[in-house]
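Dear colleagues,

As part of the handover before I leave the project, I'm documenting each prediction I ran so the next person doesn't have to rerun anything. This entry is a single chain, and its sequence is reproduced below.
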Amino acid sequence: MIRNDRTRYVPRPIDTRNVVLSADLVGLTERLAENAHDVWALQRLGEGWTYGPARDDKAKTHPDLVPYADLPDSEKEFDRKTAMETLKAIVALGYGINRRQL
């Protein structure tokens, strides 16, 4: 018999509660958030989605298929949190991020 363990799923993200990011990394989060949105939008557009005032999975329209700058802050916050938690997870796992001198 196959058990459906999806109902027992308990998320266990990397513990980042004690991670404090440098000012440079905090500043990087906005650029990473914008990039995450652009990657998502590029994938959607490649799948045939277009801008529409409301999300419609059947018609493949989505109101967030706009430049990052045009998103409402509530939508930007999702990408910001993802970027921030990714940076914190990298640090929590013992990795460092250094900017190269160009």
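Helices lie at 23-46, 73-92. The chain has one domain: 19-92.

All the best with the project,
I.
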